Amino acid sequence: MNAHITRVLQCSAVLVAAGLVLTACGSSDGDSSSGQSKSPSFSGRGPITYVAAKDSSPVTQNLIDAWNKEHPKEKVTYIPLPGDVNQQRQQMIQNAETKSDAYTVLSLDVVWTSEFAAHQWIDQLPAGQFPLAKMLKPTVETAKYRGNLYAVPYAADGGVLYYRSDLLQKAGVAKPPTTWAEMKAACAKVEKLPEAKGMSCYAGQFQKYEGLTVNFAEAVNSAGGVITDASGKPDVDTPAAKKGLDFLVDSFKDGTIPKEAITYQEEEGRQAFQSGKLIFLRNWPYVYSLAEKSKVRGKVGVAPLPGLDGAGSSSLGGHNLALSSFAKNKATALDFMKYFSSQESTATYLKDASVAPPYEALYDDPAMVKQYPYLPALKKSILSAVPRPRVVQYGDATSAIQQQAYAALNGDKSSAQALKDLQSDLQKLATP
Ligand code: GLC
Q1: Which one of 57, 89, 108, 109 would you pick to mutate in the ligand 1 pocket, going by the greatest count of ligand atoms within 8 A of its CB?
Q2: Which CATH number covers residue 328?
Q3: What start and end residues bound the annotated signal peptide (predicted)?
């Protein structure tokens, strides 16, 4: 407690001092391009930490190594967290609740911005100091809370359909499916091939965690339903939403989705696809580069998600950098965030790990499109992706969704009952 008060007092002193210094800086360096002076609270230089999910590629560590070489007195230590987004959130919240300075720069899932900002666990950022105008607009919106910037995007994400191009071709399926019915029909043909023996048709992420919220939302949206309406009111107990959930429930029942997929997060699905167990897989763009280094190399196609009557719609995913309110060396942290979220760094993530960048220009860059022909389609899918609710109590909303969707997929409840219960759970949250 005392330490906290001391820190607050020290901060105000720094604020005043920095305010004075800034006036002088503003006139001497003539930098008015950002339209915003450097935020005076970002003071202190020295070692910091970067806290993010364990990277399945070496890019995160490579970028940090390059920074550390240039900044020997402001070294960044990477603290890898578990791959499960729910566990990442829990660890970051624990750190914030104890006001620990162990975490400096946080890699936040796009759905956490409001919660972290409302609790003042992260600092507001100087928007003028980041090239936000060059980034995909929906992605930038995920980094804002009440119109102010609290994080900066470094990875956008949109769901895509991976498919075994070799098997589709062999089975005479000319192009990837755009509807669920077409996907099932394609599987029926592929499954007749001797080399498809023992393969399953489709999987996504169905374990009870954030990925299930994403897959449920995509199924509902891709059947023309919504979870909340345009004004934010829950509206999930509808025939359209039922058609979406039924696609998943029936697919589990009829074996289109293999039983074990009820335990899949992103990585388990990727491994199943890479080891030749799946014809189709719903996952994020990072999978492409890893699959191209696996047994299915050269046999992987990428298409937009299918839907009920036509193309489906993706949930908006992604990761943003935020600065822990309780951290030290915030001047270093801000510089590191600029470096890590720069077009150059995110181009490295794209080139070396097929992570979708926030910068619009990279999606049309000829060299990148040559490497990843699906980039223009991915850009469209991210631009039209459906954001998950941007609410402070997102944790409660998503856990209600996971609870009910899981019960339906597991066969504990009918989809009609699950949607009825979800509607009532969400209504209770909406009216505290
Ligand atoms: C990806 C997405 C993120 C989403 C998560 C679900 O990491 O970028 O937004 O919440 O997957 O598992």
Answers
A1: 109
A2: 3.40.190.10
A3: 1-23
pTM for this prediction: 0.90
Distances (CA, A) of 168 to 8, 94, 310, 339: 62, 47, 19, 42
**Which residues form the pocket of ligand 1, taking CB atoms under 6 Å from any ligand atom?**
85, 109-111, 157, 205, 210-211, 214, 266, 284, 317-319
Give the per-residue pLDDT at 138: 97
DSSP one-letter code for 416 = H
Structure tokens given for 402: 């996971």
Is there a domain that residue 253 lies in?
no
Q: Give me the domain span that covers residue 150.
A: 23-158+316-383
**Alpha-carbon torsion angle 165, 166, 172, 178, nearest 10:** -10
Name the nearest CA neighbour of 280 among 184, 169, 379: 184
Tokens 């994080």 sit on residue = 151
Walking along the chain (432 residues) 10 residues at a time, the average pLDDT comes out as 32 28 25 38 95 96 98 98 94 98 98 96 98 98 97 97 98 98 98 97 98 98 96 95 98 98 98 98 98 98 97 97 98 98 98 98 98 95 92 92 98 98 94 66
Query: 386 CA distance to ligand 1 centroid (A)?
Result: 13
In a domain, 196, yes or no: no
In a domain, 167, yes or no: no
Where does 108-156 have alpha helices with state H? 113-118, 137-141
Which protein residue's CA is at the shortest distance from atom 6 of ligand 1?
Answer: 211
Going by CA atoms, what residue is nearest to atom 5 of ligand 1? 211
| 353 part of a folded domain | yes
Q: How far apart are CA 277 and CA 188, in angstroms?
A: 15
Whether residue 258 contacts residue 280, with contact meaning beta carbons closer than 8 Å, is answered with: no
pLDDT given for residue 27 in this prediction: 26
Give the count of domains, the chain. Answer: 1
